[in-house]
Each structure stands twice: as structure tokens, then as C-alpha cells.
Amino acid sequence: MLVHICCSVDSHFFLQRLREEFPQERLVGFFYDPNIHPYSEYRLRLLDVQRSCRKLGVELIEGPYDFEAWLDAVRGLEAEPEKGARCGVCFERRFAVSAKKAREIGESRMTSTLLTSPKKSIAQLKDAGERIAAKEGVSFVTVDYRSGGGTQRQQEEAKRAKLYRQDYCGCLYALTQQRQQQKIPADELFSPLDGRLLPGSIEERLALYEERIALEEAGRDYTIVRQKFLNHRLKLGWVRHKKETLASYILPYSTMKRRYTKGRVQMEYDGLYWFNREEIRFLTLERYNERSGCGYGTLRELIASPPPFETDLKVRESCGMGLWDLSPLIVLERVPEGTLEILIESENYRDVREKLVVL
User: Does the pLDDT value for residue 309 go beyond 90?
Assistant: First the structure.
């Protein structure tokens, strides 16, 4: 039986139950989820499914990540709610490719771990699965592993197996709607051009779960804990002098009451230039290198390849800006005289991140 797999939280429990109910069946996992966005989240979920299947001894095939084709398929349904028409089209597309794969590898039956997801409609999945599979001459197996306390056991198994537990279905549009309802930014969609790992980002989680696998392979014990913290994302920022945009590097947690201000430097003390608006402070690149221990030759080098996020927090601290200080701190090649215009658009919000603790 080919088993379409959406994520490890659903598949780990689902595959174990399938083995109990169909002990004579050869189970082949098929990870085909082009709806998952961004690609780093796709990689993270695939990584955890691969780990789960290895532990269960289940063969796994990865399908194509044809995200653009998926976007075309759901075009016009972007505003549909969860369990709406967009989900129906999404199921049909994933089931169609899964059914073709089942026939290709000689399997006459298929099913999907989506059936055990508490946020999905079993009736909707059954209808789409049976209708689409029949076109390929394959039968769709509908099972209900949610009832009778199944969902609770599934969550307990996910916790015991230390699986990656995502907090959105994977779809770009559902993610946007969910974050709007929560009134927090969809930071999953922030991906800095410099490639730096941002706290609470998908890329940070991906690095954590890759390290987790390395620890397991080395026989090291560990645990994963969760930490509440104040997160920050810089959306846009610049500094202008005499209508010319200056190369500038805005450190994390730089926050202004209004997104735009203008004024002038009123004093210089201990290597810091103090602005007369919004508690803004400036550092020259030379002073930044001294405080960070870095050796950037130009500001453009710093912008293109900044140090780890934690280094900038240490620079802020060295400037007398502690954990609760949200004053803007900006690095310039040199701090010019006269009027400066500054724009900073950023968000601070409560968030939760995972931390790996080696025991």
C-alpha cells in the first residue's frame, strides 16, 4: 500500500496503526507536498519524515516539489478558509500524483496520513481520494484513527518520539490567514538575503533538527525545550543625508515609535553618536569592529555577510543597551554633520523558539 505522507506528527502514529490493521501489507511512504511553503519548511518536514520512516523501517519516496504548479491549481481560491474549496483542490492534486506513483511502483491501494489530521475533514478526504484514485485504477483506503482517543494518543506518540510539531498546515494562504487572526507577523515568510539565522525562524529550527539527528547518530542524549521570548524582524530601513542614501547597518531590536524621523547628532560620547530624535545612536564601522571582535573592511561587507545574531546583541549590550532597550543602533562608515533622515520599519512580538539541550 502506498501511503501519502504529509508530516511526521501524522505519519508516525498512522503508519504504526496501519501495520496493526494491515499486517500483511508492504507499506511505502510517499512524501508529496508541494503546498508546503516556504521551501525551508518543506525541507524541515521532509527531514523529520525521513527520520520517522527510518525508525519505523518504512521505505520512503520523495515526490517533486512542484510549488508553481500547485499555485496555478489553487489560483482564485486564495481567500478560502481551512477545509474549504482550496483544500479540496489541494487534496485532489496530491492524491492524483500519489495514485500515479502507486500504479508506477505496482501498488493497487493507497491511503493518506491526512486522514489522521484533526484539522482535515475525513469526508472531504474520502471523497477526493476515492474519486481520484479510481481514475488510475487504484483503490483508496479510508481509515479513522482519530476517534476513541486516537488523536490524544497521536499527540502523545509525537511527544515521545520527539517529532517536529509544526503550527500551521503548510499552505501559504492558510498561514497568512492564521497569522492575521493571531495578529502577529508571518515570520515564516521572512528570509534575509544575507542568509543569517534569525531567532525563531524556520532556518534556525532546520539547523536544530539537523543537529538533533547528528546527536542521535553519535548516541548522545538530548531534549528539546521551548522558550518564550521577544522576537524582532526588520522589514525596511535606510539613512539619508542631503537626499543621498547612505550605506547603513541597522542592528536587531532597533525600534522607532514612528517609521520616519529626521534630525541631527547632538553629541558624541565613548564612541557613540547620539541623535536628537527617537533615542537613536550611531556607531562607525571601526567602532563596530572593536565592539564585535570582527574585522569588516567596508560596511557593504557587513551588510552582505553579517555576524551571528547573538554578536549584534553583544554589541548592543556593550553600548549600554540591555535586554529591554529597543533604541535604534545604526552603523555608518562615518557619521556626517547636518540633518539626517532615518526610516526604520520593524516589528517586535511575543514568540516561542525551540532549544536543543544536550544531556
Answer: yes
